[in-house]
Amino acid sequence: MRRVAIVGAGITKFVRRAQETGKELSFEATKMALDSCGLTLKDIDMVTLGTAPDAFDGVHMKGEWLSDGAGAWRKPYMRNFVGGGTGVFAPIHGFFHVASGMADTCMVVCEEKMSSCYPHPQGAFKTIFDHTLEQPLNPTLIWIFALEMNRYMNTYGLTKKDIAGVSVKNKRNALDHPSAQIPENITVEDVLNSETLAWPVNRLDISPASDGAAAVILCSEEKAKKITDRPVWISGVGWNIDTAYWATKDLSYPRYVEKAARQAYEMAGIKEPHKEIQVAEPYDPFSYKELHHMEGLLLCKKGEAARMLADGVTERTGNLPTCPSGGALGVGNPIAATGLMKIIEIFLQLRGEAGKRQVPGNPRVGLAQAWGDLMQVGTVVVMKS
Amino acid sequence: MVLEKFELKGTGLKSQAVKDGSVLTMPCNPKLQYSWDTGQAVGRYLDGLKEGKLIGKKCGGCNRIMIPPRMFCELCFKDTGDWVELEDTGKVNTFSICHVNWDASRLPQGALPHLPAVIEIDGASEGMGILHVLGEADPKEIKIGMKVKAVWKTANERAGAITDIRYFKPLR
Ligand SMILES: [Zn+2]
User: Fold this and answer.
1) pLDDT by residue (tens digit) across B15-42?
2) Which residues, listed in sequence order, are joined to residue B83 by a DSSP beta bridge?
3) Which residue range is the domain that position B46 belongs to?
4) Is B15's Cβ below 8 Å from some Cβ in A?
5) Rounded to a whole number, what is the largest CA-CA distance in chain B?
6) Which of B102, B130, B167 is the best residue to mutate to test the A interface, defined by the most A CB atoms within 10 Å of its own CB?
7) How far apart are CA B114 and CA A228, in angstroms?
8) Is residue B86 included in any domain, yes or no?
9) What is the mean pLDDT of residues A306-332?
């Protein structure tokens, strides 16, 4: 396999409802990614697009529909989709194209416009549940998170207070992110006192529905050296799917995330992730998910992520900063675009270009992770500068 | 590159702008209807529910007794074997106390919260749970590990659906 570098990135603001169409958002992120590294569409061999359910847009074949905004016409192009895991799977998909030698340059575009599903995308989310055995019970998407969070808390003796700090940290970090939708200075008490939607989940434990797009440019080593003196290498990729019978598995631990992480670590030559990973962007659509994912990513022992949070280890100034971008909880959660936002954050952190969000110590190794489908998919990318 | 040097695009709309028509939208109400075939395993499971029974299926390879039943074992990747009648009791693996409807709209003031739960069914293999709801339960007293029993609709009311079980109630 050839080495694959990230050389450029683009992103839109994340907003609750964008005036722009999905195509327009995709164009803006893609154009910015090209501009950021001085390339034009002519320089791009292949394009891959990540976008989540067609039901958000009410447009069948959404990949084809968005393809002009992604700069794909008259190029080899594919759409990929693994639910909430899409945004970190899309660069893995692009990685295949370049690592295999099929392409020297590949543009990876992720778009989500959740606002078209009116008044709220819950109608689309409901169809995630089994149509015969679960949908008749009238589930809301929040159920699966509430059920998983409760099992996680119960298994390790955690309280809501132990977890609420994730929202506080990420929303505060997002104050420094120019794309951020809901950056805020809040306290643990604010989280605990916010409306209880489905105990143990409160309103401030949840990321918002968002519109937005992001893009990165991947290149072979030879091309990368001509484009930038600061390439960031995709040094490990992993992805894994677990059972769709979600109620039959151990909800306290995302073993599919561990499998994806081990695959990525092995490829990247990482033996002790908790020591070697210097900055991480675990997927945080709900506050507890950041902790759950840190454990699956082997960044700490099972049940110990809350302790790291309490000790400040995961702050930007800590030993293992998590979600320095502000994460889904603070920057916003346009599903596929969120994962790629996390990839972009690690790209910038490893280049020392994260501005006010920069974590100290010149980090050289980082990772981004996303999660999705029916609580069953893990996608992981390890990056090195 | 630093993000701050770019003028990021994306124009947030206020809901008022949509309401008063200062930005234009094109509404759509798709009319789609589906009829999902239940398949062999879930079809039999629904037949069982109509009779007031929970039916699982055993895999001869790994000896797991699975609910909901499946025609093939995804681990052994072979046909499953015998149908097994399970108990209509189990224990709460996890639960939530939910104050919103399926569409995230709020329950009316004073309404009892919804009590979704994963219930590990007795007679199935360890950890085999199904999604259902709890009833006749004080939210404050629900505990993980609590024993529960199905409360069925009457034989006349049962239609061969997961809702033939009204809810699971605590076993005292
Ligand atoms: Zn088997």
Assistant:
1) 888 889 899 988 888 888 999 999 999 9
2) B57
3) 38-170
4) yes
5) 69
6) B102
7) 55
8) yes
9) 98
Q: Residue B31: what pLDDT?
A: 86
Probe site for chain B from A125, A150, A286 (most B CB atoms < 10 A): A150
Rounded Cα distance between A339 and A91, Å, is 9
Name the residue of chain A whose CA is nearest to B106's CA.
A197
Q: How far is CA A121 from the centre of its chain?
A: 19
Residue at A187: amino acid letter = T
| Rounded (10°) angle between helices A255-268 and A287-296 | 50
Distance from residue A247's CA to the centre of ligand 1 (Å): 18
| pLDDT attached to residue A118 | 80
- Tens-level pLDDT at each residue, chain B (172 residues): 999 999 999 999 988 888 898 999 888 888 889 999 999 999 999 999 999 999 999 999 999 999 999 999 999 999 999 999 999 999 999 999 999 998 889 999 889 999 999 999 999 999 999 999 999 999 999 999 999 999 999 999 999 999 999 999 999 8
Distances (CA, A) of A191 to A141, A168, A184, A287, B131: 20, 8, 12, 10, 28
Give tens-digit pLDDT for A257-293.
999 999 999 999 999 999 999 999 999 999 999 999 9
Asked whether residue B30 is assigned to any structural domain, the reply reads no
Nearest alpha carbon to residue A170 among A213, A144, A205: A205
Number of domains making up chain B = 1
Assigned domain for B95 exists: yes
Q: Are strands A77-80 and A46-50 parallel, antiparallel or unpaired?
A: parallel
**Residue A14 phi/psi, 5° resolution?**
-100, 125
DSSP A236-271: EEEEEE--S-GGGS-TTS-HHHHHHHHHHHHHHT-S
| Surface-to-core class of residue A282, CB atoms within 10 Å of its CB (0-12 exposed, 13-18 middle, 19+ buried) | buried
Q: Which residue type occupies A38?
A: G
pLDDT at A58 over 90: no
Q: How far apart are CA B118 and CA B94, in angstroms?
A: 5
Contact present, A121 and A84 (Cβ < 8 Å): no
Check whether domain A4-117+208-384 has CATH 1.10.150.120, yes or no = no
Measured CA to CA, the distance from residue A170 to residue A206 in angstroms comes to 11
Helix (H) or strand (E) holding B18: helix B15-19
B145 burial via Cβ count (<10 Å: 0-12, 13-18, 19+): exposed
Q: Which chain B residues have a beta carbon less than 8 Å from that of A36?
A: 1, 6
Please give the Cα distance from B35 to B37 (Å, whole number). Answer: 6
**How far is the centre of ligand 1, averaged over its atoms, from the C-alpha of B125 (Å)?**
12
Q: How far is B12 from chain A (nearest CA, A)?
A: 5
Is A143 close to B30, i.e. CB distance below 8 A? no
What's residue A121's pLDDT?
82
Residues A366/A281, Cβ–Cβ less than 8 Å: yes
Inter-residue contact B11 to A20 (CB < 8 Å): yes
Residues 6+ apart with CB under 8 A from B154: none
